[in-house]
Amino acid sequence: MAIRWHENDPAFLANAVRFTAAGTEFLPEQIEKDYFASVLLEYLGDQHHGLTFKGGTALSKIHAGFFRLSEDLDFTISTALEASRADRRRESDRLKKAVAALPRALPAFQLITPLRGANESTRYITTLGYRSVLDGQAQSISIEVGLREPLLTDPHHGAAQTLLQHPLTRQPLVPPFRVRCLSRDEAMAEKLRAALCRRDVAIRDFFDLDHLARRGVLKPDDGALLALVRRKVKIPGTAAVDTSEERMGQLAAQIEGALRPVLRPSEFAEFDLHRAIEIVRLVGRGVAPPQ
After folding, report:
1. What domain range includes position 74?
2. DSSP character string of 105-124
3. Quick one: which of 214, 264, 252, 265 has its CA closest to 69?
4. Contacting residues for 207 by C-beta, under 8 A, at least 6 apart
5. pTM of the entire structure?
6. What is the pLDDT of residues 192-224, one digit of tens each?
7. Fewest CB atoms within 10 Å of the CB: 63, 92, 237, 261?
8. Which of 142, 162, 182 corresponds to the end of one domain?
9. 190 and 167, same structural domain?
């Protein structure tokens, strides 16, 4: 399946975005970005079969229903811990070719920054631009691919959803398509590791965990999940578990700028930062109990 509404009928696509925004309460520009993210996701999955979709966007588009929208795509390529920098660079070659060819395959996108390695070639990052069908303004989507660790569970081949609705039928304008992604448990374990250890603490990690716990998807005392998190936090290069007041105190200032724009008003109203912090601290005690 090729997703090509932006090429075949951009005016209809713009109408569908506005229709979906009116019915879902998400911002039109975020709905449009989710559509273009699906275009990229389908292309990259077809080009590199070892690419594994992950992160909050994968949780939302595949595992847990649309609880928030996103502005980027995160992937991993399963990589042995003992892999050398040269090994990782060789593994990235196919990915570099796919990204370099992307503007030819998908002319709506411009390569703003080529795919470049960082952190001893354990991360590769690129940014792609597109013109909004709503107002012609330049927009962008960042893509990050990690090559620093192996998968701990078998990958899941899930159906990626796109929020956009047909204005007449109210059915999805883009049919679900298969994507290789982290299993739900491993995706949640990575999200918990990020909340516990990420050097730049991020409010969206805490919202995602609070939402998943409220819906009964995440159980902070689940032994199998805690075992996965323990293994994740021991991966070389992971910062220490930190649930200190100083680190948690950085979250409140991010709520308006980083969280509200990607949520429905109803989801935003349900979010409780204090509850989210307690969920993370509960997991932190299970993963790294005091000596």
Report:
1. 1-182
2. HSTT-EEEEEEEEETTTTEE
3. 264
4. 68, 259, 263, 271, 276
5. 0.94
6. 999 999 999 999 999 999 999 999 999 999 999
7. 237
8. 182
9. no
